[in-house]
Amino acid sequence: MILPINPVFVILFLGEPVIILTMSSDTRSTDPKRGDALGRLTAVMGSIRPTYERRQRLRQCLIEAGAENLPDYELLQVMLFTSNPHADVESLVGELLDRFGSLAEVMSADPEALAAAGLSLSAIAGVKFVREVALRFMRAELHERPLIGSWDRLIDYCTAQIAYSKVEEFHILFLDKKNALIKDERQQRGTIDHTPVYTREVIKRALELGASAIILVHNHPSGDATPSDADIAVTKEIAKAAGVFNIAVHDHLIIGRGLHTSLRDLGIMLSNTETTEAKLSAFAFPQHSALHDEAPNG
Fold this sequence. Notes:
Layout: E1 9-13, E2 16-20, H1 25-30, H2 32-64, H3 72-83, H4 89-100, H5 103-108, H6 111-116, H7 121-144, H8 151-162, E3 169-175, E4 181-189, E5 194-197, H9 199-209, E6 213-219, H10 229-244, E7 248-255, E8 260-262, H11 272-280, E9 289-292
Parallel strand pairs: 6-7
Antiparallel strand pairs: 1-2, 3-4, 3-6, 5-9, 7-8
Helix pairs in contact: 2-3, 3-4, 3-7, 7-8, 9-10, 10-11
């Protein structure tokens, strides 16, 4: 038997079109089961509408008033329901912020940690996509002007990149003769309080890229940006080796959570006299040193 149907209705299910075929009134009246099913569907759609309308308001606010006017939890909601319209992102966002502590920490979390928190593959990809776009935007500005005159932008970039990493990361910023960024590379990724540094590899890579200067950067996962004795020793080793090849080491930045330390500002960099002496001491590079997330002794 062929059931008569009315015209097709298209509705939106959290941003996605859903096609519903409704039967004629005569058929519904003679088939109670179908009438009950349609009633349940109507109730479900009635509960979905407020969520859809709220998401529309968030989209409009994001576009018309500016993203800066949205709190962190609403920005995270927009990002997640854009990548997965069917997900219950409102409750998920609360769980994410409780687990990780902040939007910045959610964005910096490893894919495995995000999956354990309940994010789907598409949602994880969305988080990583947004983070990388933001970092590339910030990095582009560093390519266009001397870093020495853009210190605040440099600190913002380094903070966004590694401040919330759960393990230590050692990065090198390679600069040209005008102190503009050639490339930012992560040389090592270590543990929660330790990462190895190979002085020879630092100098080798600087020569390969034709860098005239470098800036060393690493994070302290504890959040404390106080340099350790090992941090200071590594800085002096690299600066001494770089001086042999007329490569300047402008600074070593230690990035904490919401704060940073510049070893140049602390006066812990080679003087001109020490650089000259380094050029006379032939290639006695240490094979390997290490950075540590701990305060200096004494």
